């Protein structure tokens, strides 16, 4: 089975992740005195990271080059501390260390189900007029209510099998004008895909999508090489929507139990506010057949 394209063909995902994050931490951020003159290496040198983490230079170099695949949990934690990783990045580094230590290849992966049960469709309907969607672990759009789909301007014109949030934000030129901070949205999308690629690079629902985006989006290529696994789970977004105007909504993203990898993303606004009034307008579909739950069309 094909695997997700990665930076370089050597080493391990663990080593590539460490190398990418090492280049992003300055000596000053790591607590080292600022030196004089130009540094040929961006970020920390291997010997600097090794010293700060309390391991030998040779041992760290072997980890980064994929020669040492069984670093202890204490070493992994020390590296995370020096690299200033947040909680999600630290957890991902631990997952990569576990994957690197495997002595046998994992069983061939199968794509997770894209089925959405009637209970979830009922839940989406009951959330109206709050825009809501259900997405897969690779951000395929699996089900939605009318307002949820209309947040992704133009996606209702796409075939159901092509409706994917990452594909839309990178390959639909109009997506850049929908969000106040488009760059934040694409970073969050790449973060989710990169996290999955680190622990399951041969995932059948991931490989084709990543290869497509690597081939067609320079912005995706640049972000993919950063090995950033941060993703948004809640907050606010400002949308610029045709016929609606500017709309600022809070949102929550939550995992759905019993459906591995499926997430419900629901948006809301305080009642009585102009944003809530606009949200009600957004819930009034223009073309009802285009806005039916995805599950009805996937089968």
Structure in words:
The protein has 299 residues and is of the alpha+beta class. The protein has 2 domains: 13-100, Orthogonal Bundle (434 Repressor (Amino-terminal Domain)); 118-298, Beta-Lactamase (2-Layer Sandwich), CATH 3.30.450. It is built from 14 helices and 5 strands. Strands 2-1-5-4-3 form a 5-stranded antiparallel sheet. The longest helix has 18 residues, at 182-199. The model is unreliable at 294-299 (pLDDT under 50).
Query: What CATH architecture of the largest domain would you give?
Result: 2-Layer Sandwich
Distance between the termini: 26 Å
Strand ordering within the main sheet: 2-1-5-4-3
Residues in β-strands, percent: 5-15%
The helix content, as a percent range, equals: 40-55%
CATH fold field value of the largest domain: Beta-Lactamase
Low-confidence runs = 294-299
Helix count equals: 14
Question: In terms of structural class, how would the helical and strand content be classed?
Answer: alpha+beta
Quick rundown:
The protein folds into 2 domains: 13-100, 434 Repressor (Amino-terminal Domain) (Orthogonal Bundle), CATH 1.10.260.40; 118-298, 2-Layer Sandwich (Beta-Lactamase), CATH 3.30.450.180.
Strands, helices and their partners?
Elements: H1 13-22, H2 46-53, H3 57-64, H4 73-82, H5 87-100, H6 118-126, E1 132-135, E2 141-144, H7 146-150, H8 165-171, H9 175-178, H10 182-199, H11 204-216, H12 218-224, E3 234-241, E4 245-255, E5 263-268, H13 274-282, H14 295-298
Antiparallel strand pairs: 1-2, 1-5, 3-4, 4-5
Helix pairs in contact: 1-5, 2-3, 2-4, 4-5, 8-10, 11-12
């Amino acid at each position: 089975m094909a695997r997700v394209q990665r930076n370089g063909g050597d080493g391990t995902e663990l080593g590539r992740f460490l190398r990418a994050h090492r280049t992003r931490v300055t000596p000053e951020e790591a607590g080292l005195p600022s030196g004089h003159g130009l540094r040929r290496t961006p970020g920390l040198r291997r010997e600097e990271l090794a010293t700060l983490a309390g391991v030998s230079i040779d041992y760290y170099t072997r980890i980064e080059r994929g020669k040492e695949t069984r670093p202890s949990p204490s070493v992994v934690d020390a590296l995370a501390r020096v690299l200033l990783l947040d909680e999600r990045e630290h957890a991902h580094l631990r997952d990569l260390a576990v994957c690197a230590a495997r002595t046998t290849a994992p069983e061939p992966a199968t794509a997770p189900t894209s089925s959405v049960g009637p209970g979830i469709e009922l839940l989406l309907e009951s959330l109206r007029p709050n825009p809501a969607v259900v997405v897969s672990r690779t951000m395929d759009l699996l089900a939605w209510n009318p307002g949820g789909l209309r947040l992704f301007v133009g996606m209702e014109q796409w075939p159901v099998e092509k409706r994917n949030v990452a594909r839309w934000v990178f390959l639909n030129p109009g997506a850049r004008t929908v969000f106040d901070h488009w760059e934040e949205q694409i970073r969050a999308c790449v973060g989710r895909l990169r996290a999955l690629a680190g622990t399951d690079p041969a995932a059948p629902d991931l490989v084709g999508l990543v290869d497509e985006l690597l081939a067609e989006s320079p912005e995706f290529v640049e972000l993919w090489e950063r090995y950033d696994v941060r993703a948004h789970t809640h907050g606010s977004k400002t949308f610029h929507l045709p016929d609606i105007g500017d709309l600022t909504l809070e949102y929550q993203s939550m995992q759905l139990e019993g459906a591995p990898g499926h997430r419900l993303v629901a948006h809301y606004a305080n009642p009585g506010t102009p944003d809530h009034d606009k949200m009600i307008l957004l819930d009034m579909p223009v073309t009802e057949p285009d806005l039916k739950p995805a599950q009805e069309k996937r089968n």
